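BUG-90 | component: ligand-complex export | severity: low

The export step for calcium ion jobs runs without errors, but we want the raw record kept on the ticket for reference. Input record follows.
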Amino acid sequence: MRNKIVAILLVSVFVLGMASLSMTKSLATSKYDLDGNGKIDMEDMYMCALAFGSYTGHTRYDIKCDVAPDALDGNVNMLDIYAIAAHFGE
Ligand SMILES: [Ca+2]
Ligand SMILES: [Ca+2]
């Protein structure tokens, strides 16, 4: 009986651990997830497309969309679209 309780406790701890691990993973934000919904999807591509061709100080410029190269270059262009597309679905 006691062994059964210990086993159940161990399984519970394991399941909780896995659950919190997967939650941490899904909540981890990526700079390519522009709208922060936890997924790099069409919404992010769309946001970047709206800012496409803009630059620092431009009315449509959105610093969140300027993801490439790693140190942002002040321009939203094909490099940024491509970087998001490369991580699409993550
Ligand atoms: Ca997103
Ligand atoms: Ca850029």
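Assignee comment: Attached the raw record above. Helices lie at 2-27, 42-51, 78-86.
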